[in-house]
Amino acid sequence: MSEEQVEQEQAESEDERPVPGTATPSQAPAEDDRLLRLAADFENYKKRVARERREYVALANERLIAELLPILDDLERALSAAEQHEEAQLEEGVRLVHRSLAGLLERHGVTAIETGGSFDPHVHEALLSQPSEAEEGSVLDVVQKGYRLGDRVVRPARVVVAAPPASEEAPDGDA
């Protein structure tokens, strides 16, 4: 055999090798069946994961609601005391509701955002800039408290920020 014949036979044998991912006509139904089963298994997996996610959310909501119900009971007692015009009992009832709700939120990792010091745009929302003798950029007043859940800001603190004091020089009327 000459070298040309050997090279030609090698090229022909390479052409006869099946390409990965393709099947010969006799293997085609088995390959199609395998791919269909794989696709069906994946669809079942997606449905199962979605169902489990819904169950986890429902369980988390159920726990939260179960912990909120006693606070609702406290609020109803405070309202019934208000109907009887017993101010001392009303104030005590509202304080009880506030303590209960604050405790519940704290147990679930909710903390109030600190508002002392200077303005931080990551955790504060400036509603107003007011001239003041205080250092420029410091928080003067808190309009609404802000809260974090872990490291995430659930609601930024809405604050009034100190601006430089307004100059008292009146503009000249010579113009």
Identify the notable features of this structure and list them briefly.
175 residues; alpha+beta; Nucleotide Exchange Factor Grpe, Chain A, domain 2; 2 domains; three-stranded antiparallel beta sheet; 3 helices; elongated
Q: What does this protein structure show overall?
A:
- This protein is an alpha+beta fold and 175 residues long.
- It has two domains: 31-108; 110-165, Nucleotide Exchange Factor Grpe, Chain A, domain 2 (Roll).
- It is 52% helix and 18% strand.
- It has three helices and six strands, in the order H-H-H-E-E-E-E-E-E.
- It has helices spanning 3-16, 28-83, 87-107; strands spanning 110-112, 124-131, 139-144, 147-149, 152-155, 157-163.
- The strands form two sheets. It has a three-stranded antiparallel sheet with strand order 1-4-5.
- A hairpin with a 2-residue loop joins strand 4 and strand 5 (152-155).
- The model has no long low-confidence stretch (mean pLDDT 79).
SSE order and pairing:
Elements: H1 3-16, H2 28-83, H3 87-107, E1 110-112, E2 124-131, E3 139-144, E4 147-149, E5 152-155, E6 157-163
Helix pairs in contact: 2-3
